[in-house]
Automatic annotation (TrEMBL):
The lineage of its organism: Bacteria, Bacillati, Actinomycetota, Actinomycetes, Micrococcales. It comes from Agromyces albus. It comes from the Bacteria. One of its GO terms (molecular function) is acetyl-CoA carboxylase activity. It holds the Pfam family ACC_epsilon. This is Acyl-CoA carboxylase subunit epsilon.
Length: 79
């Protein structure tokens, strides 16, 4: 797996073009490392599936009747 990652990182690094003049090799390497790490982090977050709600939880709202508001509703509940 490390070979595939190194190969794709090299391809991604080759796609980066610096338009600022006089960028040293160390600066270019640092920026490239940060950008590749950010890309990897974004891909990892995108691959995490969203949690699925349980069927019991999803249908729980259908079992509950909505509150009925109005004059005298709470008085009748206490009888």
């Amino acid at each position: 797996m490390a070979d595939n990652t190194a190969h794709s990182d090299a391809e991604s690094a080759a796609d980066i073009r610096f338009v600022t003049p006089d960028v040293s090799a160390e600066e270019a390497a640092a920026v490239t490392a940060v950008l590749l790490a950010a890309i990897d982090e974004g891909e990892a977050e995108a691959s995490v599936p969203e949690p699925v709600r349980d069927h019991w939880v999803r249908s729980g709202g259908a079992l509950r009747a909505p509150f009925q508001t109005g004059h005298g509703r709470w008085q009748r509940a206490g009888r």
